[in-house]
Design brief:
Helices cover about 30% and strands about 20% of the residues. By secondary structure, it is an alpha/beta fold. It folds into 2 domains: about 150 residues, Rossmann fold, CATH 3.40.50; about 130 residues, 3-Layer(bba) Sandwich (Glucose Oxidase, domain 1), CATH 3.50.30. Strands 2-1-3-4-5-11 form a 6-stranded mixed beta sheet, sandwiched between helices. The model has no long low-confidence stretch (mean pLDDT about 95).
């Protein structure tokens, strides 16, 4: 079970961008998303810094943090969807009001660079969040995605969170989920925002990066003790890696890296950057068996 607060018709949701702002040409798709939410019976507010201007930077760090802090403080907002990605999310962490996040426990959805927010929210505030890109609702697999999201948020099913998987090693794992995009997750190393991996299930995915980069990042995690302490590993999609037919290289490397401990490893093609991806809840217990 996700234990996610359900939305109801008449509720208010917010759209924001904690990482790189969206390009102005994305406005058409975002307007489509807003219209869809209204069809769901939801009211929509958007951040003032949703779109980038002439650079990747979308305002002073404090100003960007203020936007998301206002959304967590605003009792009329029931859920927050981040539509951004890139590199900039970790820049605002020191300005985030994690105390307010802990009090409101408001559902927050994001993916990719927002992995830094998802993990920081869990580490500092003890709050679960959702690895999901809501822009999936206005792309290639929009019909299926819209049904999944509506049924989960409005009707209260777990359909969006029920993903298919296969076992690489083992038959069981259980623990609260941390991780996300491997590159972005590791940006938190050495900061107060990196979560404890002990007894947790680590979920990893990536958009960019071929075998040489991916095995380097996995080696870093092994040297940090992540794989010797965690309860299991879920591998989502690794887009560029799979496009070049290199996933098997990485799978073999992970198996060798974790062979001594016989770490349970599962693989799913339904979590990651694909616009047909489902969602996984961070900071909440998951059981695969």
């Amino acid at each position: 079970m996700t234990n996610m607060p359900l939305l109801a018709r008449g509720n208010r949701v917010a759209i924001t961008a904690c990482s790189d702002g969206r390009r102005p040409e994305a406005r058409v798709k975002i307007d489509e998303l807003i219209a869809l939410f209204r069809e769901f019976g939801l009211e929509v507010v958007t951040a003032t810094d949703l779109y980038r201007a002439n650079t990747y930077m979308i305002g002073a760090l404090q100003e960007r943090a203020t936007e998301i802090n206002k959304m967590f403080h605003d009792d009329s907002i029931n859920a927050i969807f981040d539509v951004s990605g890139g590199d900039a999310a970790n820049q605002i962490l020191e300005y985030i009001d994690f105390q307010a996040i802990g009090k409101t426990r408001k559902p927050f959805f994001g993916i990719s660079d927002l992995s830094v927010m998802l993990n920081a929210m869990y580490k500092v505030s003890g709050v679960g969040s959702y690895h999901y890109q809501v822009m999936n609702l206005v792309h290639e697999h929009q019909e299926a995605q819209r049904q999944l999201l509506y049924d989960t948020l409005i009707k209260g099913t777990d359909d969006l969170f029920n993903f298919d998987y296969s076992w690489i090693r083992g038959q069981h794992m259980a623990g609260a989920v941390v991780g996300g995009n491997i590159r972005c997750f590791l940006k938190l190393v050495g900061t107060p925002y990196f979560p404890d991996c002990k007894d947790h299930v680590i979920f990893l995915e990536s958009f960019g990066g071929r075998a040489h980069r991916t095995v380097s990042l996995l080696s870093q995690m092994e040297q940090m003790g992540c794989f010797s302490q965690c309860a299991g590993l879920i591998l989502g999609t690794f887009t560029e890696l799979e496009q070049h037919g290199e996933f098997q290289v990485v799978e073999d490397f992970i198996k060798e890296l974790t062979e001594k401990r016989q770490l349970p490893i599962a693989r799913t093609k339904e979590l990651g950057h694909g616009n047909d991806s489902k969602a996984i809840q961070f900071g909440t217990n998951i059981v695969l068996q």
